[in-house]
User: Fold this.
Amino acid sequence: MSNQVETDAIIIGAGPIGLFAVFELGLLDLEAHLVDILDRPGGQCTELYPEKPIYDIPGLPFVTGQGLTDRLTEQIKPFKPTFHFNQMASGLQRQPDGRWRLSTDAGTEIIAHVVVIAAGGGSFVPKRPPVQGIEAFESRSVHYAVRRMEDFRGKNIVIAGGGDSALDWTLNLAPIANSLTLVHHRDGFRAAQHSVNQMRELAAAGRITFHVGGVKALHGLDGVLERVTLAGGDRKEWTIVADAFLPFFGLTMKLGPIADFGLNLHENLIPVDTARFETQTPGIFAIGDINTYPGKLKLMLSGFHEAALMAQAAFRVARPDEPLRFLYTTSSPSLQKKLGVA
Amino acid sequence: MKIIAIDREGAEHSLEGRDGWTVMEILRNAGLPIEAECGGACACATCHVYVDEAWFDRLPPRSEFETEMLDMATAYEPNSRLSCQITCAAGLDGLRVTIAPE
Assistant:
């Protein structure tokens, strides 16, 4: 199978701790593949606060979420990690030879000696508006992303939200929709100004409708949407014909399939020992915000430490017959060679 | 000072506010189901609450950041606030908030 690969370590989550795990594993000659549901590295740092300041990284008096991600990405480059973006780790099975096989929802299969769960608060998934019965429409009429624009040709579309996604898809789908209604709770947007201007021009020309308000109810049969009830700012409600509803309220974190990996979760966190940062299942490690142990602090600082100890333990699992030689990057010519500086 | 918090099941909780703490922190410390994914950075809209009408105008107004971040709240109401942006203070004794739906 072409999409099956073998490596030393699978890291679930390409946030700051997953990225630094590549470094610590790499120093011990362990190669890593990372799986992340987002389309780029950084996790919460780039998804939630790319521009926000971080002041508690040792040696970096000030760095932004994006800046830290960029530096970590640079730091691990010598170890040539393989990234599998836009994929959710969906299944984990032990192989007859004792290694692990991780499968993703995109059909990738990775076989490795160890699995490192660095999934933070879980997978980023679209926020679902609390509209009664919305789940029933999700496979056919309610979409949190546009995969194929053609699927929306000739449709009566309702878009909710006030960010760039809501505005971009309003502009992109308006020319092919039969009708398009954008609803947002205020007459202001958290989106690029030129998109807002374009949207207002379309609305003024009568090619789309913009309402200040929200979606209150969905109506239809067997998952096929027929009408949507909207409520205006004055709470007045009315119903319009609609066959597609696209809510764009950003992302939230859900634990997802990791909950089914048999790791004896405690309040959605994975218990680990503090010598190895291994879970109760040998060969599966958990580091960063997703783990728990006495005294745990959800700080990146702690996650970096956990990555270093995890790597030592992971080496013993992946290379049981080799001695572990502990070296410092400052003084070791062999480490410096790996880092590409000697 | 007291904060009265109403959870998603409608149960009322009387919580002890602490000067300088945010309402989000008080709710989280009390074990109430407030996500607060970004940890209080006004970056995720998952600490969304509705402020009792009688109290809404007595709070310092929303910042522009909070107004923009509320665009990402899925169940906006005119009395929506992000609880990480409300700081406990003596004048807020008796503040009533309802945790917004997930």
About this structure: The interface with chain A takes residues 35, 37-39, 41, 43-46, 67-76, 78, 101-102 of chain B (CB under 8 Å). Chain B has one domain: 2-99.
